[in-house]
Design brief:
Two copies of one chain form a homodimer. With 199 residues, chain A is mostly beta strands. Chain A has three helices and twelve strands; from the N terminus they run ββββαββααββββββ. Chain A has a six-stranded antiparallel β-sheet with strand order 1-12-3-10-6-5.
Amino acid sequence: MPDQTGRIFEIPPRSGAAFTLDAGQRLTVIDPQGEQVADLLAYVRGDTSEVISSGRTLDYASRLFLTTGDPIYSNRSNVMLRIIEDTVGRHDFLLTPCSADTFRIIYGDEQPHRGCFGNLAAALAPYGIGPDQIPIAFNVFMNVQVDGQSGALTVEPPMSKAGDHTTFLAEQDLIIGLTACSALQSNNYAFKPIHYRID
Amino acid sequence: MPDQTGRIFEIPPRSGAAFTLDAGQRLTVIDPQGEQVADLLAYVRGDTSEVISSGRTLDYASRLFLTTGDPIYSNRSNVMLRIIEDTVGRHDFLLTPCSADTFRIIYGDEQPHRGCFGNLAAALAPYGIGPDQIPIAFNVFMNVQVDGQSGALTVEPPMSKAGDHTTFLAEQDLIIGLTACSALQSNNYAFKPIHYRID
């Protein structure tokens, strides 16, 4: 495969992609039109039982919202990715990828879209990663407002504007899953693409 | 095995247990002395790849804090447990079980305890469940205060007083993992037992 470094890849609306990232490489996730969300998963290459962990990362950060400088830990407490640049500063790490079940349970759809979950499962299948291995994703640009008293969670439009981006440094050789989110609430009711670049 | 229904079992301080629960049975988790936490895991018997999911449960509830009436969903969006009685009303579903890594990273311990994570892994091993299959637990009585603006998480003493309890109805045949928590912050700096009863 020719060197893809620096090339801009597009993930079309309501779809997903999977690709590898080498330790030391940087992944930049770009919101080309603004107000779009990208669900991000990372697995250790060679042992895909090691995967990003919301529960460990938030525990060690003692904070719900991550931004520049924050590490993303695996279920084995190893750092997988580190956020090294972030023009938005608001992402979600609480909710699982939207799925056919999400659309059925939350939106009442009778013939639901497979959602980010289905898109991630399809994109990750060639790497031998099954749907049960999909945990809470790091939801880039997703804006979940939290009421600390009641605990109420509300999904608001992303704060990202056209061209905003977040850059992750890979601390290990990884397999990445990434989507252009399929859920109406997450992207202010307009399905849009996501761009990404590897340097 | 003789019928254990209604018997009170004790989980000693800083330890864990695993047992089965049949669909329709009720599990009551009791804090015998007050201000103690019990990490709860549930797996579907016969297919332990199906496990409780914080990310799905919080998404469908649109709320961080669960109490009486709330279902706990699996990673496949099936209801596993339902909270049917709760004298406390404050639990955590954000953080992974404390582990040797927690004690190393957060407390700076050089010879760390294996924590709830190690206790759960040991208790669940006879059921063929490995450590990589341990997700975010439902942390009964754990009191994590959330600042909705900054996202700051602070672990406060549980609101549970001696004798307080939470009862879960099993919606499927389950394997349960349960601990008396090992982390100082979680239980106001005193290691205490946890009691449970199955009816």
